[in-house]
Automatic annotation (TrEMBL):
InterPro entries: PsdUridine_synth_cat_dom_sf (IPR020103), PsdUridine_synth_RsuA/RluA (IPR006145), RluA_PseudoU_synthase (IPR050188). This is RNA pseudouridine synthase D3. Pfam families: PseudoU_synth_2 (PF00849). Residues 95-255 form the Pseudouridine synthase RsuA/RluA-like domain. The lineage of its organism: Eukaryota, Metazoa, Chordata, Craniata, Vertebrata.
Length: 308
């Protein structure tokens, strides 16, 4: 956990941590001047000057105005095509994978990924228009798998279905959590259902559901396999592998374990704290609100956040 380790040590010796982790070939690192006409200590003294620090002072950014990620509603159709074209992470044979931005719906009214596929085919010079095999939800960023061969799609869908029946994970996620999950490895088995709370459709845990609720599919069994990869300064890097599919499953399961995902402004409000000990709050008594008390962790993983 490079960033978390850097944050842990930066409190006492940030200068040396920067020296260790910065690219030696970068002109920002003193080691880059060891064999140049500028001595390394001259560069160091220059950086230590008040004028240099004033010029390099980080400006606060309002994430509501400039969140640092593409805003789909603000992009034209051509800009969206260019964004998708530059987001390709895998391309071989009939398969194509790209990183979908948050806010781009899969189907429905424009702009949607499905309506953009014909233009994407022209931009990539494909022989046929690809179709969607798997994709992340509208409000999430994530990988989208496309294919222009229906036979290949059927093979992939059959393999995914077989893997799920055998309880083999078909997707792996990583999340930074507030707090540490105990034990450090295991499975979260908590049925889920969708309920209307405070005028919003939210996912809530449904422990010990009645057989009738399961048969009517009012409640669905949900299982998430997890493993804590590392921990530091009140947060953890966690690997998550869902063995079922349900809306917001990972975020709700993390809140059930009293370690909500960093940046979860919906379900993290269900985790309270008394004398430093996290507790679970009744889901119908709390409304979703921006996550609080995580400034130190945000700084540790180098996230820019707004003061408003």
């Amino acid at each position: 956990m490079r960033h978390l380790f850097r944050f842990r040590c930066a409190l006492s010796s940030r200068r040396w941590i920067q020296l260790i982790f910065e690219d030696p070939k970068s002109s920002r690192c003193p080691e880059a001047h060891l064999y140049s006409t500028v001595t390394w200590y001259h560069s160091y003294l220059q950086k230590a000057s008040p004028k240099y620090r004033q010029e390099k002072k980080i400006q606060r950014v309002n994430i509501l105005q400039d969140p640092g990620i593409p805003i789909v509603d603000r992009l034209s159709r051509n800009e969206l095509i260019e964004l998708l074209k530059n987001s390709i992470v895998y391309r071989e044979g009939a398969l194509l994978a790209l990183s979908k931005p948050c806010g781009l719906s899969i189907t429905g009214q424009e702009p949607s990924l499905n309506t953009l596929l014909p233009d994407l085919r022209k931009a990539l010079c494909l022989s046929e228009t690809p179709h969607i095999v798997t994709a992340a939800q509208r409000d999430l960023s994530g990988l989208v798998l496309l294919s222009n061969c229906h036979q290949t799609t059927r093979i992939i869908e059959a393999a995914i279905l077989q893997a799920r029946k055998a309880q083999i994970p078909v997707a792996t996620y990583w999340a930074v959590t507030v707090g540490t999950l105990h034990p450090s490895e295991g499975e979260i088995k908590m049925p889920l259902k969708i309920s209307r709370i405070h005028e919003r459709q939210l996912v809530i845990p449904a422990p010990d559901p009645a057989p009738g609720n399961l048969q009517r599919k009012e409640v669905k069994k949900a299982v998430t396999r997890y493993r804590v990869l590392d921990s530091a300064e009140g947060c953890s890097l966690v690997q998550l592998q869902p063995l079922s599919t349900f809306q917001d499953q990972l975020r709700v399961h993390l809140s059930v374990k009293l370690s909500p995902a960093l940046g979860d402004h919906v379900y993290s409000s269900r985790v309270g704290c008394i004398l430093g000990v996290p507790i679970s709050l009744p889901v119908d008594s709390v409304e979703p609100h921006p996550q609080v008390g995580v400034d130190k962790i945000q700084m540790g993983v180098h996230l820019t956040f707004s003061s408003c």
